[in-house]
Write a structure and sequence with these properties.
The complex is a heterodimer.
Chain A lengths: L2 H25 L1 H34 L5 H24 L3 H34 L3 H9 L5
Helix pairs in contact in A: 1-2, 1-4, 2-3, 2-4, 2-5, 3-4
Chain B lengths: L14 H22 L3 H4 L5 H30 L7 H25 L2 H27 L6 H26 L9 H32 L7 H24 L4 H24 L8 H22 L8 H35 L8 H4 L2 H20 L5 H34 L13
Helix pairs in contact in B: 1-3, 1-4, 1-14, 3-4, 3-5, 3-11, 4-5, 5-6, 6-7, 6-8, 7-8, 7-9, 7-11, 8-9, 9-10, 10-11, 10-13, 11-13, 11-14, 13-14
Classes of the chains: A mainly alpha, B mainly alpha.
Chain lengths: 145, 430
Amino acid sequence: MTIKDFLATDHSKCDGIFAKMEEIAVKSLADAKPLCEEFIANTERHFQMEEKIMFLEFEIKTGMTQGPTLMMRQEHIQMRALMNNMLDAIEQNNKDKFFGYSETLMILLQQHNMKEEQMLYPMAQQHLSEDSNRIIEMMNSLVVE
Amino acid sequence: MELNGLSIDQAPPISAPVRFFLTAPIFGLIAGIIILFSDSSALMNRYSLESIAITHSITIGFLGFIMLGALTQMLPVLVGAKMPKVVFVAKYSFLLLTLGLIFMILSLLKHNDIYIYISMLSLGGGFFMMLGSMAIALKRVNNYTPTVKAIVTSIFFASTIIAMGLFLLYSYSGENISQYQIIVANIHSVWAIFGFGGILIIGVAFQVLPMFYVAPKFKSFCKKRVVWLISTGLVLWLILSIFQEEYTLFAKAWIALFFWAFATTVWLKLNKRRRPITDVTVWYWRNASIFLTLGAFLWIFDEYFKHEYIVMVGILIGGGFIMSIMIGMLYKVVPFLVWFHLNGMGYMTIPTMNEMINKNLSKLQFILFVISIVGFIFSFYSPIVLKISALSFCISMILLEYNIISPILIYKKTLKSKPDFDMSLFSQKD
């Protein structure tokens, strides 16, 4: 498996949980809380797999620390804030706010994923192809902080 | 390999796409006003000068402006290569295109040759700058996805229709009507609708539908072959139109079949989407599917009625299909851009995307728009409906302008009042 396939598959997994969460949230926000937490946990894990392993390897190999990975890290921060806002909206049982944040997150997330899948992952695969298995293994065994 | 493909300053400033977006409904309104004050019999003829002025106010001023604005924003995300001099190009091509289009409309309505020459120079220059910059960006692409291929194909068709358009415009000056006028006009319009607009929408839909609505992905056959198959159909249609006109029906059926398949696929994918949210953008996608299906079939049947219904086909496909997609996209893109740019600057307590546009007003805008398109169709049988439809269209354009300017006003207000300038979230934790 390539780094690109591994991380892109993980994107789809998170999308699936997100869709399920919204489906339940339409009926009841409280019932959607466990799925929201599951989505956040999975997304956080994905972010950390990138930030602590793949991005680092990429930055060391290419020497580019101010390029694409910096932009992706910044978007991760924006998304983390939105995910916290979603949890707050669930606590306040405010559906309008919740869907406002979830819609914003969805578009931010998708254009972010697109940039990664179209550009960063193919670039990473090209530069890190020799270490591909090792990097995937490290990402698989990551302990989320 | 282009390592700088993805950089911090990659997204163009918000003004680059937004100036195109905010101008589009104004040209829509201009088209509506010309319809309102035109004689219905003149509008039944696709070659009347009023019809041409209205058509181009919509196709260049509304559809073209939204497509070009969206491409300046989307190319860096989809393609990863920056358009060279994007700020300069977006600004000056916008000025040239706006000036050129105003003079084109005036020249057709006032029969003024000087206006024609001004409009030719401005439109030609504006399109050349914009498409040239896009072509350079596309040339740098390494990862040729189906969406990128569709964009490249649509830009090829755009270049040919612009060249044909300039030729046609020139022919209206002096006594320059050429013997090729009708055939060139026919190719210009068919390639514009299906080759440029249609292929661009299909290519972008491959990405957008599965992403934003978590709908099932398009089949690999569809993504790999459809653009190629439609392009072949369009070239075949061109050859038959010139040499064997009696057989053009086959090529038309070929092209229409794929567009009908696309319309059906969009409808089914929306049914199977995993996001439960139904907003006005979903309504617009569904609306586009219905009108595209009707338009594609009527385009074929029109062959049996000596092209009596060609204006109706134009309304169904240009108005019902392409305009619907463009308006739906504006409702998502404008609030997102405002949120994204403000949030990226460190403003955290800003309204969410959903709070930036009044939902009831966007629904009202949708209803008035649909009423106007259906009304335009019925105007063929009852001319009195035309005025009411034109009025409904004008109001829907004013509402659209109001709806998309609202997020921009939030943007301006936030920059002015600086409510909670806070960069702490962006400081790295580790």
